[in-house]
Amino acid sequence: MRKPRRSGTGARPTHLLDTSTLLWALGAPERLSPRARRRVDTGENMISVASCWEVVIKAQKGLLTIADLASWWRRATELLAARVLPIRASHVTALAALPMLHKDRCMRNRLTDAFIAIVLGAAATVALAAQQPARQGGAAAPAQPGASTARTGGGVEGRGRAPAARPDRIAGHPNLNGVWQAINTANWNLESHSASPTAFSQLGALFAIPAGQSVIVDNNGTIPYTPEGLKKRQENQAGWPKSDPEAKCYMPGLPRATYMPYPFQIVQGENDILFVYEYASANRVVHMTSHTEAPVDTWMGWSNGKWDGDTLVIEVKAFNDLSWFDRAGNHHSDALTVTERYSLAPGGSHLTYEARIEDPKTFIRPWTIRMSLYRRLEPKVQLLEFKCIEFSEELLYGDLKKKTSK
């Protein structure tokens, strides 16, 4: 239990219950100290969003015996007269249906965990509202093409109901929620390139580099390097594949994370937006309501977003200089700024993705890439685990192993 605070003279103290206090107060009150029991009984109780996540995770891992999470959470708020900020029982149901990958990742950082609960809670509100009867008499609205099937906390698809239509808009903006994936060769080389063999002849045609067209829409389809930048690219190419951060399972950076051959998910609520990438479990928060400066430079940069009509515009800054744009050694410095634009096509089947690249240390002028990102329409599509660090250990640390005598 956190330290109580008073909102004014004579007001009841407000207590923020941590997860243990919450669980003991409901299921094992004898474990609470007399002081804690008194505070729970006499104060105004509040439950954190982080506790919501912890209860969901522990229940799914079998550490708690809770048959119906939504009913349990409703009982918690009624019995303890607790206010939950800002999670509702319906949100817990939606959170419980998410892949465990996301929740395990989030629990490493309580602040990130709390934020994601807020974002997903808002998204769950919209999704659950779409499941309600659209007309009097209980008839559900007809499903739209490409609409996702509603999932309950029990994980049973539909339970005899028609699939719920995906809402077209959230808070007046296009609904970008979903799993998306690029289908192109940009991760091999942003510029036009011919097919070529892999660096390892023993593999034959396996993992050969496919031919591809440039996704650069200006500068004649090429990257306008400075002489120093071009020299650095040539050095990167000479050291490939070991020099490629992707081979080492490092964070992909942007815009590369968008067009790697792995899906990613957009989680859009009424405020901030979350991007989750399958590769290396990378993720980023797009700050929509309060634009802030990055505390430090990072692989994935710092994202501030806004809506330009129906187009989501994200300015990403504060990168380190360690990521690449592709496997061809195209690179950047810590002066990189990426301005992304996501536009949903009519019908919602794909996004038009555009990224303007600015880096005066590396390029003589800005340049832009453009491509389509396709919605994954499988009924049970979700991001799976790609924990690639174990695949790169030999590459990174093989020379440090002790040589055994023959």
The geometry reads as elongated
Number of domains: 2
Number of helices: 10
Largest sheet: 9 strands, mixed, barrel
Distance N to C terminus:
60 Å
Order of helices and strands: EHHEHHEHHHEEEHHEEEEEEEEH
Rg over alpha carbons: 25 Å
The SS-based structural class is alpha+beta
State the strand order across the main sheet: 6-7-8-9-10-11-12-13-14
Tell me what portion of residues adopts beta-strand conformation: 15-25%
Proportion of helical residues: 25-40%
SSE layout:
Blueprint: E1 14-17, H1 19-27, H2 34-42, E2 44-47, H3 49-60, H4 69-79, E3 83-84, H5 89-96, H6 100-106, H7 110-130, E4 169-170, E5 173-174, E6 178-182, H8 227-238, H9 256-259, E7 264-268, E8 273-277, E9 283-287, E10 302-308, E11 311-317, E12 337-344, E13 350-358, E14 367-375, H10 389-397
Parallel strand pairs: 1-2, 2-3, 9-10
Antiparallel strand pairs: 4-5, 6-7, 6-14, 7-8, 8-9, 10-11, 11-12, 12-13, 13-14
Helix pairs in contact: 3-7, 4-5, 5-7
Structural account:
- The protein has 406 residues and is of the alpha+beta class.
- It has 2 domains: 14-125, 3-Layer(aba) Sandwich (Rossmann fold), CATH 3.40.50; 180-196 and 205-391, no CATH class.
- The protein is 25% helix and 18% strand.
- It contains 10 helices and 14 strands.
- The chain has helices at residues 19-27, 34-42, 49-60, 69-79, 89-96, 100-106, 110-130, 227-238, 256-259, 389-397; strands at 14-17, 44-47, 83-84, 169-170, 173-174, 178-182, 264-268, 273-277, 283-287, 302-308, 311-317, 337-344, 350-358, 367-375.
- The strands form 3 sheets. A 9-stranded mixed β-barrel has the order 6-7-8-9-10-11-12-13-14.
- Strand 8 (273-277) and strand 9 (283-287) form a beta hairpin.
